[in-house]
Amino acid sequence: xxxxxxxxxxxxxxxxxxxxxxxxxxxxxxxxxxxxxxxxxxxxxxxxxxxxxxxxxxxxxxxxxxxxxxxxxxxxxxxxxxxxxxxxxxxxxxxxxxxxxxxxxxxxxxxxxxxxxxxxxxxxxxxxxxxxxxxxxxxxxxxxxxxxxxxxxxxxxxxxxxxxxxxxxxxxxxxxxxxxxxxxxxxxxxxxxxxxxxxxxxxxxxxxxxxxxxxxxxxxxxxxxxxxxxxxxxxxxxxxxxxxxxxxxxxxxxxxxxxxxxxxxxxxxxxxxxxxxxxxxxxxxxxxxxxxxxxxxxxxxxxxxxxxxxxxxxxxxxxxxxxxxxxxxxxxxxxxxxxxxxxxxxxxxxxxxxxxxxxxxxxxxxxxxxxxxxxxxxxxxxxxxxxxxxxxxxxxxxxxxxxxxxxxxxxxxxxxxxxxxxxxxxxxxxxxxxxxxxxxxxxxxxxxxxxxxxxxxxxxxxxxxxxxxxxxxxxxxxxxxxxxxxxxxxxxxxxxxxxxx
Length: 501
What we know:
five-stranded antiparallel β-sheet, 17 strands
């Protein structure tokens, strides 16, 4: 035996403080039983402190400490002691659960030692209790955590991915693989590349917030191509995860499909916009009815009264001529209103595909004499394969209005030109009609450019309804119209034909 070991053994025998120090500092408790007198069972004060009681306030009796031991574990302990005594087995080991004064479970490892006399007969039982509650609770928490995240990871309706701090995939769950058609080769690649490019700024922005505010969820909706080629909108919750050094080590992303929700929202917004446009048209129409018709009516009433009062034949003839002029104006107003009502009432007419180049050529042919007389150079840069889905009568009217306007408001100071072209924009085929004519002061007239009875040049033929009807016809086909113009330099009208059928 090492001399220090032997010295420690002797110290325990001669100096109680050494024994007390060892059992108080390293153990959860001690118990010592008299096997000849089972009612005599001693348990150390440390045990009571381990289970949250003041040992000075409690009697050291068997019934008292047995009350805090789990019933099953107490039965197992008694069985172990009985077995050791009967078989002379010198030791045993078991886990004992006790109830702390707070109600929590205290986990103790109990190691028993059978003590025999010189004749080999057992007469005492010594038990050593080691408190491992902290380790056990950590195990339980880890198990619950693993179970919790395991259920999430196996969830068949939520995407779970993780990236490193550089945005490269480090983990994706099976649901993500399945829905987006990826395989394990995606690990280590850039997560940004799998997102629709237009959404990259949003993604980069939310990742920036993860770095600025780690461990806090940040929300974003991003679009990704689906395995069948369609694009799906997904709601994501990004969270920056910190390593032991307090640095962002990973980004955890949990998402789910919100495509239907986004589509319904977009549909609602479109309906709201259509309703707003229809409301504006209704208000405009109501204004025309209340203002123009009432003006004609008041004028006619006054003229009739004057005629009734007139006694002079020449004066009566003059009033009659004025009455005829007023009725002609009223008829003209009614015709204009009829055109507007016709455009709006045919909004649901089915659309048909039309070759845009052929329709433009037909209109130019119809205006051929005007173009020739005006010495206008016309160029058309529209491929022959371009088609648009339109109400044919509306397309005829739109082309006729916009091209004839470009002729009508040509410049007299320069060689007039009209250039027709096209380009594609998301969801639209855009027809452009550009001229170098008089132009429009948009700073003054933009808000009323497409209004009823709005004219911007001193042209005697101008009625102020052409652009109003054109806009109504385009919007009735789910399209839109825009204009760029500069006074004295010309205008470019852009007609957006919706690609929807």
